[in-house]
Design goal:
The mean pLDDT is 88. The chain has one helix at residues 4-25, and strands spanning 40-42, 50-54, 61-65. The chain has one domain. The protein has a three-stranded antiparallel sheet with strand order 1-2-3, with helices on one face. It has one helix and three strands. It is globular.
Length: 67
């Protein structure tokens, strides 16, 4: 089985999310791809060592591990 295509997709997704986090942390407004509402970076989540990026509707939710 050839995993090269899957690995390329995974790498592209990781890089896309990394760029999104850079832009949000720099204060840029990024819109959700689904609902076009602004995404919010929240580093003060209840769970220990967790942060998240989300929109108001909840169609985008990215959990972050903070070390």
């Amino acid at each position: 089985m050839d995993f090269s295509q899957l690995n390329k997709q995974r790498a592209a997704s990781f890089n896309k999310q990394k760029q999104l986090l850079k832009k949000l942390s720099a204060g840029q407004t990024i819109l959700c791809e689904q609902c076009q509402k602004p995404l919010k970076l929240n580093l003060a989540v209840d769970a220990a060592q967790k942060g998240q990026v989300c929109c108001d509707k909840g169609c985008t939710l990215i959990e972050l591990e903070i070390a």
